[in-house]
């Protein structure tokens, strides 16, 4: 087990500087354009693929970094560049983590490369769990997967919503109900391979922020996938369902479902994205406060402004520490006895919302215009308290973990 450290090693610093260079030179200059266009920034994803940032190898290297700091460091730098574009670059990772967490070695080897494509022909992937009537309440999911034993195929029907890269993905990972009696314990994850008949994109959402990231409904109508597309395989699913039925009979113990396993692994990473956006806005505000003069002196000369910047930086550093701790715990298999993963996501996302609002205020009228990036960062930051579990749901998870009670 790696010791917890608050300092990046030399190799990590090199990677961080390389990512920062890409974020500053390629992502940040393209941010306003793709925010306005509200489209997936394919050329930027392709640039990222060419230099090796958009690749399984890169993410695997960071994901398995024993210090746990690889992924948070990478997310912070990319999202410092721009949240919408960065989500277009890392969104595939959510689907990839779904396969890494639940798939067999063969499934990992077959599907993850097809999620990314290559630098000449980049592809993206989507993780589809949320539904119109199943957002925070994952257990009320209705998308159904029925096994056709004669053909060894699964048949999927339902409507997914809010899917990042939904409908434009080469590979979709879809969470569906296999045993409705078991609630969230009766869910399983499926790969829907490229060009599978019956899968289509529904509404594409026009959003408040992260507008360079594609978000859409995914409609599944008699989508047939081979038995081999069930993540983890049929034998493992049957064993898991049998255990869940036993526990249900005994009136018992909660078990994790497939979607929750994916969310748990990715929450500190979302916290790191929020840290990146917050840091970006704070830096713009600090520079502005030092140069903007009113009443014959820079506005930072007023405690009212300087103290805000002091608070902003303090919260950002505190958020990063929570994120790094949770990420180190996840990588080293430490038990989250106080829901430290949820804590990191909760604090970092609330920090991003607050800090970006403060940055708008410090820039005054300029902060409210699209001439300055803090307006976009403020819109972008609002997503962090919503996706991958809202702030209220994080508080619920933390409170339940601390109390051992099923607080509602
Ligand atoms: C841009 C974007 C990208 C997304 N990407 C994906 C993706 O790739 N894949 C995917 O599967 N999903 C994705 N999501 C979905 C996201 O995870 C959900 O929006 C989120 O889980 C909240 O669900 P909901 O929107 O249905 O809100 P609801 O669950 O309806 O919640 C509405 C409000 O009620 C509150 N609330 C609900 N229950 C409780 C409770 N028990 N106690 C206190 N408050 C409560 C919530 O906190 C929230 O404030 C994305 C969403 C967005 C907006």
UniProtKB/TrEMBL annotation:
<protein>
    <submittedName>
        <fullName>Acyl-CoA dehydrogenase family protein</fullName>
    </submittedName>
</protein>
<comment type="similarity">
    <text>Belongs to the acyl-CoA dehydrogenase family.</text>
</comment>
<keyword id="KW-0285">Flavoprotein</keyword>
<keyword id="KW-0560">Oxidoreductase</keyword>
<dbReference type="InterPro" id="IPR046373">
    <property type="entry name" value="Acyl-CoA_Oxase/DH_mid-dom_sf"/>
</dbReference>
<dbReference type="InterPro" id="IPR009100">
    <property type="entry name" value="AcylCoA_DH/oxidase_NM_dom_sf"/>
</dbReference>
<feature type="domain" description="Acyl-CoA dehydrogenase/oxidase N-terminal">
    <location>
        <begin position="9"/>
        <end position="115"/>
    </location>
</feature>
<dbReference type="InterPro" id="IPR036250">
    <property type="entry name" value="AcylCo_DH-like_C"/>
</dbReference>
<dbReference type="Pfam" id="PF02770">
    <property type="entry name" value="Acyl-CoA_dh_M"/>
</dbReference>
<dbReference type="Pfam" id="PF02771">
    <property type="entry name" value="Acyl-CoA_dh_N"/>
</dbReference>
<feature type="domain" description="Acyl-CoA dehydrogenase/oxidase C-terminal">
    <location>
        <begin position="258"/>
        <end position="402"/>
    </location>
</feature>
<dbReference type="InterPro" id="IPR006089">
    <property type="entry name" value="Acyl-CoA_DH_CS"/>
</dbReference>
<dbReference type="InterPro" id="IPR013786">
    <property type="entry name" value="AcylCoA_DH/ox_N"/>
</dbReference>
<dbReference type="InterPro" id="IPR009075">
    <property type="entry name" value="AcylCo_DH/oxidase_C"/>
</dbReference>
<dbReference type="InterPro" id="IPR037069">
    <property type="entry name" value="AcylCoA_DH/ox_N_sf"/>
</dbReference>
<dbReference type="InterPro" id="IPR006091">
    <property type="entry name" value="Acyl-CoA_Oxase/DH_mid-dom"/>
</dbReference>
<feature type="domain" description="Acyl-CoA oxidase/dehydrogenase middle">
    <location>
        <begin position="126"/>
        <end position="223"/>
    </location>
</feature>
<keyword id="KW-0274">FAD</keyword>
<dbReference type="Pfam" id="PF00441">
    <property type="entry name" value="Acyl-CoA_dh_1"/>
</dbReference>
């Amino acid at each position: 087990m790696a010791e917890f450290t608050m300092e990046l090693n030399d190799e990590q610093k090199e990677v961080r500087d390389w990512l920062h260079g890409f974020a500053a030179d390629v992502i940040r200059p393209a941010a306003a354009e793709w925010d306005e266009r509200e489209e997936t920034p394919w050329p930027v994803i392709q640039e990222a693929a060419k230099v090796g940032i958009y690749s399984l190898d890169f993410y695997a290297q960071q994901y398995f970094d024993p210090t746990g700091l690889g992924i948070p460091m990478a997310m912070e730098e990319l999202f410092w560049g721009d949240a919408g574009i960065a989500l277009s670059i890392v969104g595939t990772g959510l689907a990839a983590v779904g396969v890494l967490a639940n798939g067999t070695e063969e499934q990992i080897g077959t599907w993850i490369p097809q999620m990314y494509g290559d630098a000449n022909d980049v592809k993206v992937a989507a993780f589809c769990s949320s539904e119109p009537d199943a957002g925070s309440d994952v257990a009320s999911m209705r998308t159904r997967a029925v096994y056709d034993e004669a053909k060894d195929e699964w048949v999927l029907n339902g409507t997914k919503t809010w899917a990042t890269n939904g409908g434009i993905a080469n590979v979709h990972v879809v969470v569906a109900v296999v045993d409705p009696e078991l609630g969230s314990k009766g869910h399983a994850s499926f790969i829907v391979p490229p060009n599978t008949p019956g899968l289509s994109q529904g509404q594409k959402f026009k959003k408040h922020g992260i507008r360079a990231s594609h978000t859409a409904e995914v409609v599944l109508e008699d989508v047939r996938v081979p038995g081999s597309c069930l993540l983890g395989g049929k034998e493992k699913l049957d064993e898991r369902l049998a255990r869940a039925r036993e526990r249900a009979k005994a009136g018992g113990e909660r078990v994790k479902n497939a979607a929750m396993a994916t969310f748990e692994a990715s929450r500190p990473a979302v916290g790191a994205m929020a840290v990146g956006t917050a840091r970006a806005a704070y830096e713009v505000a600090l520079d502005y406060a030092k140069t903007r003069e009113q009443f014959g002196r820079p506005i930072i000369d007023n405690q009212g402004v300087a103290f805000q910047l002091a608070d902003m930086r303090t919260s950002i550093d505190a958020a990063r520490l929570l994120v790094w701790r949770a990420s180190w715990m996840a990588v080293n298999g430490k038990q989250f006895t106080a829901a430290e993963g949820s804590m990191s996501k909760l604090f970092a996302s609330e920090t991003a919302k607050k800090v970006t609002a403060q940055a708008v205020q410090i820039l005054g009228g300029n902060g409210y215009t699209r001439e300055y990036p803090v307006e976009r960062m403020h819109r972008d930051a609002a997503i962090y308290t919503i996706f991958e579990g809202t702030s209220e749901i994080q508080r619920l998870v933390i409170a339940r973990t601390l109390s051992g009670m099923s607080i509602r």
